Amino acid sequence: MHGNLKERYRDFLIDRFPMRCRECEKKKKRFSRMVKRVDNIYFFSMGFLNSTYRMPKLITFALPSQESESYYDREVQIELLKKKLKSARSILLEKGGVLGGTYIIECTSRLLPFPEYPLFSWKHHAHVHMVGVAPFIPRKHLVEFCECLFPIGLGRINYKVPKNSRAIASYISKYLVKDKNNSRTFGIMRKSTQTKP
């Protein structure tokens, strides 16, 4: 291709398909993967004969917030939460019928006000954002379910029905790129991805 023609073709591509830096390209790919995972959960849920499972649920739970004089204690909180996840998944299945899904772990850390607290004191809040293949829970049983993780040292569950798959994918993916988090798939969704051709 002639030099001038090459330049014009390159400008044509740039106008229509923006050139991203490596970091932005990683974020885009992470978002695309999360959209596919959440869409898979939606389509999987819609295939249930039992209508109570036909809409995935957004499930959030956390460790109690921890005050610290070190920013890096947030890693300790994340590891502590990871150790409790196996028990948490078992309880969610037993108490709430959560069959599987995708989740990420996040830890928010904020500086506490001085002089009420020592200078550079932090408050860490390690928590899980989960999109689950889970049933509708009647209001009369909701409080009991939302408190089912108390015995293993976790807080009250926030249990919601998201409006659509794209909105929840956007919500979850911002945590993926925020701290370079990785999402995890578990339960029936893990089996479904393994059996795909």
Outline of this structure?
Helix content is 47%, strand content 20%. It is of the alpha+beta class and 197 residues long.
Describe this structure in words.
It is a single chain. The protein has helices at residues 3-16, 22-46, 73-96, 139-146, 165-178, 188-194, and strands at 57-62, 66-68, 100-111, 122-133, 158-160, 184-187. With 197 residues, it is α+β, with helices and mostly antiparallel strands. The chain has one domain (50-194). The longest helix has 25 residues, at 22-46.
Radius of gyration: 21 Å
Main pleated sheet: 6 strands, antiparallel
The number of domains is: 1
How many helices in DSSP terms?
Answer: 6
Distance between the termini: 41 Å
Shape: flat
Q: Are there runs of 5+ residues with pLDDT below 50, and where?
A: none
Query: Strand tally, please?
Result: 6
The percent range for helix content is 40-55%
